[in-house]
Specification:
Layout (H helix, E strand, L loop, with lengths): L2 H8 L2 E4 L10 E4 L3 H7 L4 E5 L5 H9 L3 E4 L7 H10 L3 E3 L4 H11 L2
Parallel strand pairs: 2-3, 3-4, 4-5
Antiparallel strand pairs: 1-5
């Protein structure tokens, strides 16, 4: 499955990274504690979080996630979107809770 397919199936907003929606997704991880994400998320996963600050890009890049979904309608700082574009990491947004996003991801086959 690709990031673009997830965007379509879940009706997500693409905040940035539109040119990288062809990235493959091989699993998922949900978490807001960055040290846990660094230690347990896997390469090419979709990461669901409520965080919207610059450190999510550092962690996403380190782990090499396919995309980040910021849930619960939380805002993402503009400088974060600029850095995410530079790092080629799609940032997606959902108004749904993290629970609902994960449930939809599982239903979509992630």
């Amino acid at each position: 499955m690709t990031v673009g397919e997830i965007v379509e199936k879940l009706g997500l907003e693409v905040a940035c990274g539109r040119d990288h929606l062809d990235r493959t997704v091989s699993g998922g991880f949900v978490g807001d504690l960055l040290s846990v994400v660094m230690g347990k998320a896997t390469e090419d996963c979709v990461w669901v979080t409520i965080q919207g600050h610059m450190n999510i890009i550092a962690v996403a890049s380190l782990v090499n996630v396919s995309c980040v979904i910021v849930s619960e309608g939380y805002a993402v700082d503009e400088d974060v979107l600029v850095k995410a574009e530079e790092e080629e990491i799609p940032i997606l947004r959902s108004k749904d809770s993290s629970f609902e996003v994960v449930r939809a991801l599982v239903g979509a086959g992630v």
